Amino acid sequence: IEIVSNWRLNHIIASELNPLKYCLPAVTLRFAQLARNYQIVFCYSIIETNNRYSLPESSFTTNSHYNDNSPIIPSDILYSYFPFDPYVLKRSSIFIRSIYNDYRDENDDITTKDLEDHSEQNIDDCDDILTSMMMSTTPCSFD
């Protein structure tokens, strides 16, 4: 964390380039969570400002539909993506593979078996509730 503190991320995040504006929203929010948890930089105010000033795509006008009250937005709006996730370039992978980490969401730890077990547990719980409702003397009594 000490090394990351020396990167002066607050200057990068607050720069005119505004990198958080061009990241995928899920990546931006995950970065903000981690940065706040480790007290590296607080970027929620920048995210809120970006959200406040970004317009839905349908309200954008292009050069061909210009009027004085609408912003001019290029028709080829930049869409962000992960061009190197996973890293598949063979020749350069010998240099990168040892330091590269595939993006992994914290929810990726849940396996299919976990989901099946959880689903079976929910079904059992619902069956128990229905059985108790049918056996009760008063309808809708949960005592």
TrEMBL record:
Coiled coil: none
GO MF terms held by the record: RNA polymerase I core binding; RNA polymerase I general transcription initiation factor activity
One GO cellular component, as annotated: nucleus
GO biological process: transcription initiation at RNA polymerase I promoter
UniProt record similarity statement: Belongs to the RRN3 family.
Protein name listed in UniProt: Uncharacterized protein
Provenance organism: Rotaria sordida
